[in-house]
Amino acid sequence: KTIHWIVDKLEDNISTYPQITEAAQFLSDNEVIAFPTETVYGLGANAKSDEAIAKIFAAKGRPSDNPLIVHISTVTQLHELTDHISEQAKLLIKIFWPGPLTIIFPKKEHSVSKLVTAGLETVAVRMPDHPIALDLISASGLPIAAPSANRSGKPSPTTADHVFSDLNGRIAGIVDGGMTGVGVESTVIDCTGEIPVILRPGGVSQEEIEAVIGKVRVDQALINQDEKPKSPGMKYTHYAPAAPLYLVDGEQKWVQGLINQKQATGQRVGMLTTNESASIYKADYVLACGSKNDLKTVAHELYNTLRAFDERKPDLIFAEVFPRIGLGTALMNRLEKAAGHKWIRQIDADDPNHIQ
Ligand code: TXA
Ligand code: MG
Fold first, then answer.
1. Alpha-carbon distance 312 to 270, whole Å?
2. Which residues surround ligand 2, an ion (CB under 5 A)?
3. Which of 16, 24, 201, 277 could tie 329 with a disulfide, CB 3.0–4.6 Å?
4. Which of 57, 82, 97, 102 for a ligand 1 pocket mutation test, highest count of atoms within 8 Å of Cβ?
5. Which ligand 1 atom is nearest residue 200's CA?
6. Average confidence (pLDDT) over 20-38
7. Rounded Cα gap, residues 171 and 188, in angstroms
8. Tens-digit pLDDT profile for residues 270-282
9. Which pLDDT does position 261 carry in this prediction?
10. Which part of the chain is the YrdC-like domain (predicted)?
11. Tens digit of each residue's pLDDT (9 = 90 or more) over 114-157
């Protein structure tokens, strides 16, 4: 049975809470525990133990070639994981840690279980910006490997309820700290080469990174879906709700026409939109996901909204799209995956040469 530890007050020094000490003890005992970070819930275990890490892969049903992020609570812990911290990485750490930025370093030998890094010579490290995560890590005294606490392929969890519905009975416990803030995962940046490369867009945008260290590169696989991603996890389908999801790009009147067409054939249609347009669309299930004028609110709600469609069971879902600027890049990356890259564009429909 999975233990449910509730931490509903975050004001005081929470490291003295019995929930935290008990959960930390489970980590020291090589058990697997879910806990909140500022991005999404993580599924943590002792990064030094093969036995503990094997339990993460088993609970998630995660392919063993997909490495895990190691979570730390102090920069001192970083020196146990790597001997090579580039100047750019130092700057990124200074500005963005603790926070939603994961940095890839050359790995120090024997510092963590080989299962964590899936046999790679590099290690991904992040310092989460959440009091529960930080206190749990320091109370355990260990580097904590933690992927998102969902079953593989499902949207990442932003509430303890999401974790329960995916993993109840498969893990030792959950520290419930309420809904997470950022809502999408950390940005992953490889700092092992001359020019840093973004492998996964996330909570810190490319623009914010470049304001600190200058031009960076972006893994070509993020732009061209035929390229092989440098981050093993990016090749897997992800975030998909149960019903097929289509990204729709066009005027609202045209989108409403698509909804009407599908409804006319007896299908129940879901529309994933924002606060501004929720009252405009007429569909079977219209769910608003934040404000399009503040993409932080969209990121905060995205996975919760994708999971909410699963409860309503539409036959298909149409989703509004966002400009790929700032946080919009991460949102579109997750939506493209959720949709399996299925697009419907008004431009194509209006083009007499376009074959449907
Ligand atoms: O916000 C987050 O990053 C959350 C919270 C829990 O911290 N964690 C998370 O972990 O999203 P996960 O396992 O779902 O995603 C980790 C990503 C995967 O795409 C994985 O392939 C990549 O990081 N990764 C890990 N180690 C790597 C390495 N050495 N080289 C390249 N990519 C790596
Ligand atoms: Mg994940």
1. 9
2. 148
3. 201
4. 102
5. 19
6. 98
7. 26
8. 999 999 999 999 9
9. 98
10. 17-204
11. 999 999 999 999 999 999 999 999 999 999 999 999 999 899 99
- Mean pLDDT of all residues in 233-257: 90
pTM for the complete prediction? 0.96
ipTM value, please give it.
Answer: 0.99
158 is in an annotated binding site: no
Lowest mean pLDDT among 23-32, 136-145, 201-210, 347-356: 347-356
d(CA 25, CA 178) in angstroms, rounded, equals 22
Atom of ligand 1 nearest to the CA of 182: 1
**Interior CA angle at 339 toward 338 and 345, to 5°?**
145
Residues 315 and 144: their CA atoms lie apart, in Å, by 40
Give the Cα separation of 212 and 92 in Å (integer): 7
Coil/strand/helix, residue 241: coil
Q: Which ligand has the minimum distance to the alpha carbon of residue 235?
A: 1
Token pair, residue 147, equals: 């992927």
Token reading at 173:
């416990």
The rounded distance, in Å, linking the Cα atoms of 49 and 43 is 15
Which residues, 6+ apart, have CB-to-CB distance to 212 below 8 Å?
91, 92, 95, 96
- In the chain, where does DSSP find H-type helix? 18-28, 50-60, 75-78, 87-96, 114-117, 131-140, 160-167, 206-213, 252-264, 295-312, 328-338, 346-350
155 Cα to the center of ligand 1, angstroms: 14
Tokens of 114: 């080989």
61: alpha, beta or left? (left if phi > 0; alpha if psi -120 to 50): left
Give the CA angle between residues 308, 100, 44 to the nearest 5°.
75
Task: Give the Cα separation of 58 and 136 in Å (integer).
Answer: 22
- Position 11 pLDDT exceeds 70: no
Quick one: pLDDT band at residue 223, thresholds 50, 70, 90? confident
